[in-house]
Backbone:
C-alpha cells in the first residue's frame, strides 16, 4: 500500500466517527449514587449526556447536570473512561466514549430541595445504594459504577471496555 498524503480535510474524513458523552457520579455520605430515570428508556442512568459541538467533556458534564437536574455543579476529577464498541444491528450506533467525573456529595435533603428534573426528559431521581444497582441499571452501567466507586476510594482513574477492565 502506498502512503498517500492527503490534505487535512480529506484525511480527517477517512477517520472513524465516534461519539463522546460525559456524566457525573453524585453521591451521598452513605455512598448512594444519584440516578435519573429517562422518559425514553426502560432503565435508570447516571446524569449526563452527549457532547455538543465545541464542548470538551468536562463542559458537557457540567451542562448536562444543569439541564437534567438544575444543579450548578463543577465536575471534579475524572473517575472512569468507558469505551463502548460500535453497535451494529437493528439499533446501530458508532463507538462511544463515556467520561465519568466526580460530581461530589449531596445529602438527600439537599437533593430534595435542589434537584429540578428536566421536563419531558426525566421522570424521577433517586439515591440508589449498591444493592439496588443490579435491578435499576444495565450490567455495563453497574460495572461502570463499581469502577467509579473504586476510583473514588483509591484515588485512581479507570479505563473500561463496555464496563470491563481490559487489563484484568
Residues:
Amino acid at each position: 500500500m502506498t502512503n498517500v498524503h492527503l490534505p487535512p480535510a480529506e484525511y480527517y474524513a477517512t477517520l472513524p466517527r465516534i461519539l463522546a458523552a460525559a456524566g457525573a457520579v453524585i453521591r451521598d455520605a452513605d455512598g448512594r449514587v444519584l440516578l435519573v430515570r429517562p422518559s425514553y428508556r426502560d432503565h435508570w442512568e447516571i446524569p449526563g449526556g452527549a457532547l455538543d459541538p465545541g464542548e470538551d467533556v468536562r463542559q458537557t458534564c457540567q451542562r448536562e447536570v444543569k439541564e437534567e437536574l438544575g444543579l450548578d455543579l463543577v465536575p471534579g476529577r475524572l473517575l472512569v473512561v468507558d469505551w463502548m464498541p460500535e453497535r451494529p444491528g437493528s439499533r446501530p450506533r458508532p463507538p462511544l466514549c463515556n467520561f465519568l467525573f466526580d460530581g461530589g456529595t449531596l445529602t438527600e435533603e439537599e437533593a430534595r430541595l435542589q434537584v429540578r428534573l428536566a421536563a419531558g426528559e426525566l421522570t424521577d431521581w433517586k439515591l440508589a445504594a449498591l444493592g439496588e444497582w443490579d435491578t435499576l441499571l444495565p450490567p455495563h452501567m453497574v460495572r461502570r459504577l463499581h469502577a467509579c466507586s473504586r476510583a473514588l476510594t483509591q484515588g485512581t482513574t479507570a479505563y473500561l471496555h463496555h464496563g470491563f477492565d481490559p487489563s484484568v
